[in-house]
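Retry 2 of 3 after timeout on previous attempt. Resubmitting structure tokens to design endpoint.
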């Protein structure tokens, strides 16, 4: 059994190959599922990529996405926690000039949880034990 786990750009390259071979998106999806199982792209994703290829868009990397830019960088939040890991969401939000929910989401994204009044990584490292 192979331990190879394909990334999405690799799978998109395979889709492009099947597109050039004149296979349908559904057929390409079936082959990906047979080959990669749970690591295969979804049927909808395969269809979306075939649509892009038909429009002569062969760029396999993700395009820049629109959306609101980050109001603060993760490093800023990490520095604040290094200075005082017992700060509350409210205190962190005031310092960073953002809502508590924004701080909470970012902490979750960083894998941080609050234990005994201190923010710590969800997965403790040996130095944290």
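Retry 2 succeeded. Sequence:
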């Amino acid at each position: 059994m192979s331990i190879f786990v394909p990334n999405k750009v690799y799978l998109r390259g395979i889709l492009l190959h099947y597109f050039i071979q004149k296979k349908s998106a559904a057929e390409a999806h079936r082959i990906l599922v047979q080959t990669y199982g749970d690591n295969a792209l979804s049927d909808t994703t395969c269809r979306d990529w075939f649509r892009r290829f038909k429009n002569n868009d062969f760029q396999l990397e993700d395009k820049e996405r629109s959306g609101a830019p980050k109001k603060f960088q993760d490093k800023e939040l990490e520095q604040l926690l290094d200075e005082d890991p017992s700060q509350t969401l409210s205190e962190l939000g005031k310092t960073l000039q953002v809502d508590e929910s924004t701080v909470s989401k970012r902490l979750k994204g960083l894998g941080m949880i609050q234990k005994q009044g201190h923010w710590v990584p969800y997965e403790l490292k040996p130095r944290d034990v």
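Attempt log closed. The CA atoms of residues 90 and 100 lie 6 Å apart.
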